[in-house]
């Protein structure tokens, strides 16, 4: 499936995140990006100049036809993730699809049906789940260090200007056409986090949404209730620069986790004890990329840590957040 230089990746979508994926892949030492495609040759060349990716295309399909790729990283806007993943899956090419897997749950169903029918690997790039700190946190929770988790409070805020970046006609973040908005861009991490912590879908969903003038949400807040009485409350926003934290409260203590900045550690607090800081290996895309490589080498068509069914449930829960506001 790969040559002596490792797994051969292609990239669809030559925007901001593409060079980070390229760099992280090189850091794994397990593969390289051999081709990248954009709707615009100018954007493809700009990425090529930055990264040295050898083959650049202004057509996604032409790249898929002409290149011998082991996997494709889908890094386009949320509205077209499903279409671009399907372009690959229908040709039998595995995909790592940037979050959120799709805009609507119905598109996720379509994508998953095709991946399963063709027996081709597909995964949502929920990279935070593969960070060593997330894996360690799950072990700590499973060991009952803070007892049963009763409450999750999470915020992910990133201040986003409404101005269009130079190369784009309109900033994707605020565009309804491109499936922008804080929920799809940031809130998806928190919905996925709640799914990881509580291991199931919420029984009830309450939400409130503050729209930007463009129509997409600039802030979304929600409360999830679970059948055993546990509650997850979270908020995501393009209006504020911070916070980006999670606090888990269990029957025997609390855990503070930083999302993104400082995500390499978490702090456990228990009554009558000194706080203990658990330090973990550095976070980054490298962990999810290595996991994809392992899955591909071992012939799996889904990730055990980020299965497609879970991505579908996350997409459905985001639909419930939108409809309950
Ligand atoms: N994991 C992480 O930490 C991050 C993940 N992401 C995710 O990665 C994906 C891409 O994000 P990012 O790179 O920031 O996005 P960009 O705004 O940089 O755009 C990515 C690509 O989408 C297409 N696109 C963007 N704007 C427009 C437009 N106005 N009209 C038509 N096409 C457009 C272009 O594709 P083309 O070049 O093919 O024409 C562009 O290269 C998203 O799913 C996002 O959520 C983003 C940032 C961080
Ligand atoms: O996934 C993401 C992580 O954080 C970014 C901001 O810093 C977001 O915009 C992005 O889509």
TrEMBL record:
Gfo/Idh/MocA-like oxidoreductase N-terminal domain sequence ranges: 7-123
Keyword Transport recorded: no
Keywords: Oxidoreductase
Domain of life from the UniProt record: Bacteria
Residue ranges of domain GFO/IDH/MocA-like oxidoreductase in the record: 136-255
Classification via InterPro entries: Gfo/Idh/MocA-like_OxRdtase_N (IPR000683), Gfo/Idh/MocA_domain (IPR050984), GFO_IDH_MocA-like_dom (IPR055170), NAD(P)-bd_dom_sf (IPR036291)
Designated name of the protein: 1,5-anhydro-D-fructose reductase
The organism of origin for this protein: Kiritimatiella glycovorans
């Amino acid at each position: 499936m790969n040559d002596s230089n490792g797994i051969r990746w292609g990239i669809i979508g030559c925007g901001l995140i593409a060079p980070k994926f390229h760099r992280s892949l090189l850091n794994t030492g397990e593969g390289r990006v051999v081709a990248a495609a954009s709707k615009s040759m100018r954007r493809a060349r700009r990425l090529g100049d930055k990264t040295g990716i050898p083959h650049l295309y202004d057509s996604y399909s032409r790249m898929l036809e002409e290149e011998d790729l082991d996997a494709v990283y889908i890094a386009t806007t949320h509205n077209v993730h499903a279409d671009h993943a399907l372009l690959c899956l229908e040709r039998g090419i595995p995909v790592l699809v940037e979050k959120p897997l799709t805009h609507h749950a119905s598109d996720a169903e379509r994508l998953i049906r095709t991946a399963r029918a063709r027996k081709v690997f597909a995964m949502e790039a929920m990279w935070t789940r593969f960070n060593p700190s997330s894996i360690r946190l799950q072990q700590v929770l499973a060991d009952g260090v803070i007892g049963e988790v009763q409450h999750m409070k999470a915020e992910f805020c990133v201040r986003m200007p409404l101005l269009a970046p130079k190369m784009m006609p309109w900033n994707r973040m605020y565009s309804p056409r491109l499936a922008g908005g804080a929920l799809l861009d940031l809130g998806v991490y928190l919905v996925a986090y709640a799914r990881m912590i509580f291991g199931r879908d919420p029984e009830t969903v309450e939400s409130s949404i503050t729209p930007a003038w463009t129509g997409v949400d600039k802030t979304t807040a929600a409360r999830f209730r679970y059948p055993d009485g546990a509650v997850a409350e979270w908020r995501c926003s393009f209006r504020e620069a911070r916070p980006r934290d999670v606090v888990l409260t269990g029957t025997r203590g609390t855990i503070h986790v930083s999302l993104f900045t400082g995500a390499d550690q978490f702090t456990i607090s228990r009554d009558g004890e000194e706080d203990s800081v658990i330090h973990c290996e550095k976070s980054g895309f490298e962990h999810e990329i290595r996991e994809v490589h392992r899955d591909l080498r071992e012939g799996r068509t889904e990730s055990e840590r980020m299965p497609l069914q879970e991505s579908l449930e996350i997409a459905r829960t985001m639909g419930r957040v939108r409809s309950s506001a």
